[in-house]
Design goal:
Helix content: 10-25%
Largest sheet: 3 strands, mixed
Number of strands: 5
Radius of gyration: 12 Å
Order of helices and strands: HEEEEE
Distance between the termini: 31 Å
Structural class: alpha+beta
Amino acid sequence: TVPEHLRGAARRVRLGSGAGLCVFGHAHEEALEEGYANTGSFAFPGHREGRPYLEIELGARPTVVRRYLRG
């Protein structure tokens, strides 16, 4: 599936670049895992509680929090 391919691609990007976090979007399936995040779809939130976005705090180990824009 597309989400599985993106998860694998994120892993390869992290390994190849040394990045601590790889973020993709628009897969219509949200993901928030160690080293990988996908916002899903901001334009078409579907059944979610709002439009998904990520708040990222940079540092030695990036911190990611998923939030939803409501309204």
